[in-house]
Design brief:
Elements: E1 3-9, H1 14-28, E2 32-37, H2 38-44, E3 53-58, E4 60-61, E5 64-65, H3 67-76, E6 85-91, H4 97-108, E7 113-114, E8 119-121, H5 129-147
Parallel strand pairs: 1-2, 1-3, 3-6, 6-7, 6-8
Antiparallel strand pairs: 4-5
């Protein structure tokens, strides 16, 4: 059984809800999953080396990624995540730049093996968001198990 961590930054808790739904999908496939906000991760000084998959999510607010996620992405350049399975996600209102920027950074800078994505939802409860988020989590888990 693989281990995954989902780290998020949220303003209205929509990104947290999406993270929890993705975690459900990963658990459906037998993964052990930790869900953490950026601030919780920093407080607990979590080492990401013990995880097979790392997912990062942030809301897009006024066309920008939330600052805590930007800061985390810079810090992760030193975390040696190359080759780990990755995914990105986020909630948005008018635009949805943050998940794509996270995805590109994870793929091109951190050299992670990304699932198809990013997952972008206006809400965890609108237009099939629950099913889409769970399926994204299942895709992550399958990629980890196929690589094991």
């Amino acid at each position: 059984m693989g281990k995954g961590i989902i780290i998020f930054a949220t303003r209205t808790n929509q990104t947290r809800k999406i993270a929890e739904l993705i975690a459900e999908g990963m658990r459906m496939e037998g993964m052990d999953v930790t869900v953490s906000s950026v601030s919780e991760l920093e407080k607990e000084k979590t080492d990401l080396q013990g995880f097979d998959a790392v997912l990062l999510g942030a809301a897009t607010y006024h066309g920008e990624m939330m600052q805590p996620m930007k800061t985390l992405l810079f810090a992760l350049e030193k975390a040696n995540l190359e080759g780990k399975v990755g995914g990105s996600f986020g909630a948005y209102g008018w635009s949805g730049e943050a998940p794509g920027r996270i995805y590109q950074t994870m793929q091109n800078v951190l050299k992670m093996r990304m699932v198809t994505g990013p997952l972008m939802l206006k809400s965890a409860s609108v237009l099939g968001g629950l099913k889409m988020a769970q399926e994204y989590g299942r895709d992550i888990a399958r990629k980890v198990s196929n690589d094991a």
